[in-house]
Amino acid sequence: MGSQPQFEHPNKAFGWAARDQSGLLSPFNFSRRETNEKDVSLKILFCGICHTDLHMIKNEWGISTYPLVPGHENVGIVTKVGSKVEKFKVGDKVGVGFMIDSCRSCQNCAENLESYCPRFTATCGAKYRDGTTTYGGLL
Question: Which residues contact 86 (CB under 8 A, 6 or more apart)?
Fold first, then answer.
């Protein structure tokens, strides 16, 4: 039996998730992973939904996995910073875009072109390096 989202990580969360291609969203309890040494955790205050999210909700590109919490245009307040984070502190206002991670070792990352990293992690509907699911910001 596969792992259940509400037990994958220690930080409890709530969002609105698509359960299938119908486009309908319903309440969804899940969890977010622990804040690692290079991570910033935030309380999401606002979330934009763009047409990319609609494509993902309806699986129009054939790559969606369900349940899917859309929302990759998030704004919030930093609540926790990892020990190696230098540019952010608790209380800062921040925004999160389409990607939340990159390898930081390929040529694109070395040239500050992380959005072209072949191993980036998308904000929603992707897999962390540990294999668990990323969930967006539609809370």
Answer: none
Domains of the chain: 5-122 (3.90.180.10)
As a 3-state breakdown, the chain gives helix, strand, coil percent values, each rounded to 5, of 15, 35, 55
- 72: exposed, middle or buried (Cβ count in 10 Å: 0-12, 13-18, 19+): buried
Q: Is 52 exposed, middle or buried (0-12, 13-18, 19+ CB in 10 A)?
A: middle
Residues 61 and 75: their CA atoms lie apart, in Å, by 26
pLDDT at 6: 47
Task: Determine the Cα–Cα distance for residues 125 and 110; give it in Å rounded to an integer.
Answer: 26
DSSP per-residue letters across 62-125: S---SSB----EEEEEEEEE-TT--S--TT-EEEE-SEEE--S-SHHHHTT-GGG-TT-EESSS
Its pTM surpasses 0.85:
no
